[in-house]
Design goal:
Layout: H1 2-67, E1 100-101, E2 108-114, H2 119-123, H3 125-134, E3 139-145, H4 154-165, H5 170-179, H6 186-196, H7 200-209, H8 211-227, E4 235-238, E5 241-243, H9 248-259
Length: 262
């Protein structure tokens, strides 16, 4: 009887020890399994903190913008509004050294202030081209360079067009540049030269030797643009009057009115 009790106690003790070991193993396994999750939790928390900091910066910038004077807000800039367009005003826009596309003595002169990297200049060039085709004797075109600061290729492209003008291919180069977002890479320049049948060496020499001359012409165009209230590109004028026409019918209506003496 005593021996049986001892055996039972030993079995119970063994079971207790085995259970404790098993629980310890399970605990270790659970802890090991949770370690990657803890790492991920820390990473998520770090990202949340980073996002929070960025949101704080963004909110600060938005608040600063809200405090800036705005022409669209009566409270901003003392209630100032952007000056309205006076489409009846006639500006003095001399041709200067700008190439003239079409007959120089045409009755109607379209002046366009353009940025050759501007997608809107590219978009609205076909109506201008069509207008010149329909009115070959009555209408000519003068392009003034107005490269925008956020279009890095616009100024170099303007110089390429002026260099092409030295070989009588100004508007052809302008159209290639507009169609190619003013890409003036070496490969593209060679492609343009081939397409237009230009002397590549002369083009490159003119770009180098006449850079100061081209730079001065671009500056003169931009100064003129500021004087005649150019606010963006393209800006069109017909015989000195700013026009909002952007399609062939719009150009045609204004041209017919000028030709009719209205």
């Amino acid at each position: 009887m005593k021996n049986n009790v001892i055996i039972v106690l030993l079995v119970v003790l063994t079971g207790v020890l085995f259970g404790a070991g098993l629980l310890s193993s399970v605990g270790n396994a659970v802890q090991a399994a949770l370690m990657p999750l803890a790492g991920k939790t820390d990473a998520v928390a770090a990202k949340q903190n980073d996002i929070g900091r960025k949101l704080d910066v963004l909110n600060a910038r938005l608040a600063a913008l809200e405090r800036r004077p705005s022409y669209n807000s009566p409270a901003g800039a003392g209630g100032q509004q952007p000056p309205s367009e006076d489409l009846n005003k006639v500006y003095m826009i001399p041709v200067g050294n700008s190439p003239v596309v079409g007959k120089k003595n045409a009755v109607v002169t379209i002046v366009e202030f353009a940025d050759l990297q501007c997608p809107f200049c590219a978009r609205f060039h076909p109506p201008v081209k069509e207008t010149l085709k329909v009115y070959p004797d009555q209408v000519n075109l003068v392009i003034k360079n107005f490269p925008l600061s956020f279009h890095p290729n616009a100024r170099p492209a303007a110089k390429v067009a002026l260099a092409a003008n030295e070989q009588g291919k100004y508007i052809e180069m302008v159209e290639l540049l507009l169609a190619n977002s003013a890409n003036v890479s070496e490969d593209k320049l060679k492609e343009y030269v081939k397409q237009l049948g230009l002397n590549e060496q002369k083009l490159m020499d003119d770009l180098k030797n006449k850079d100061a001359q081209y730079e001065a012409q671009i500056k003169a165009d931009m100064d003129l643009g500021a004087q005649v209230d150019v606010r963006g590109t393209p800006t069109f004028y017909m015989n000195g009057q700013k026009t909002m026409a952007r399609d062939f019918n719009g150009f045609k209506a204004r041209i017919d009115a000028i030709l009719a003496g209205k």
